[in-house]
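Design job #97: recover the sequence.
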């Protein structure tokens, strides 16, 4: 229980005779799939996001969120236990969900590295385009995140980076991508995709898709080998540059510590 939660304001408890476990489970499943409940939860998340962004996490109370949502504070407890739970949901939707999605794409055997990179970049771009306010909130609130939420947040960020590094490494190994430093390339792609949260205005699904597709294409083009037939007249100079890149990549491999 957070410091702002008074004992007499805890989540209301049911009264009357106890019900069977099966009956309670059935009713709980019905509540979770209730469209109205989903709509209210969405409104709570949206208002919490707005208030956290405007006032900061520490300065926003559950009463503020209840007022903004049009609920009484006791009614709010039917949907959320405390502020930490709300913030945890926001962090999960902004980082844990994308990390899991990227891993799923990376595990596909029907796609090569280039196609995987395109799918991954599109997925992240769409995610940022559809809910930029949540990502901005988390970035601005990093210093205020409770320890357990901050730990999950950092772990999810590492997972996102790991998935992009993995696909770049595979692309280099198969010869589809230029021999660049995988971590630097992954960070560059992620940075480009995350920046959507600061300049894109959500609300139009078609615009979201167009922007996501364009940025995914830019991410792919920045890493894959160009079609040799489209090379400029400066062919020899371009060939020498590519050889230098290959040599730099080989030197990095030779400098890497070898496992015992």
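Job complete. Output follows.
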């Amino acid at each position: 229980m957070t410091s702002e939660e008074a004992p007499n304001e805890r989540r209301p408890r049911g009264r009357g005779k106890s019900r069977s476990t099966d009956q309670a489970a059935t009713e709980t499943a019905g509540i979770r799939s209730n469209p109205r409940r989903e709509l209210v939860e969405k409104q709570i998340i949206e208002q919490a996001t707005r208030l956290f962004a405007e006032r900061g996490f520490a300065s926003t109370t559950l009463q503020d969120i209840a007022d903004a949502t049009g609920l009484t504070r006791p009614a709010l407890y039917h949907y959320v236990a405390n502020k930490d739970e709300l913030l945890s949901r926001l962090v999960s939707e902004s980082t844990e969900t994308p990390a899991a999605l990227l891993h799923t794409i990376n595990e596909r055997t029907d796609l090569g590295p280039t196609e995987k990179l395109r799918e991954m970049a599109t997925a992240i771009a769409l995610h940022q385009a559809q809910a930029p306010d949540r990502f901005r909130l988390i970035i601005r609130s990093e210093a205020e995140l409770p320890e357990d939420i901050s730990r999950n947040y950092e772990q999810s960020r590492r997972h996102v980076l790991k998935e992009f590094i993995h696909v770049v490494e595979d692309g280099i190994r198969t010869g589809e991508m230029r021999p660049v430093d995988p971590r630097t390339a992954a960070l560059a792609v992620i940075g480009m995709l995350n920046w959507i949260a600061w300049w894109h205005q959500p609300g139009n699904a078609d615009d979201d898709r167009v922007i996501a597709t364009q940025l995914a294409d830019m991410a792919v083009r920045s890493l894959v080998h160009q079609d040799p037939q489209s090379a400029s007249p400066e062919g020899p100079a371009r060939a020498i540059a590519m050889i230098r890149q290959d040599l730099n990549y080989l030197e990095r491999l030779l400098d890497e510590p070898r496992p015992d």
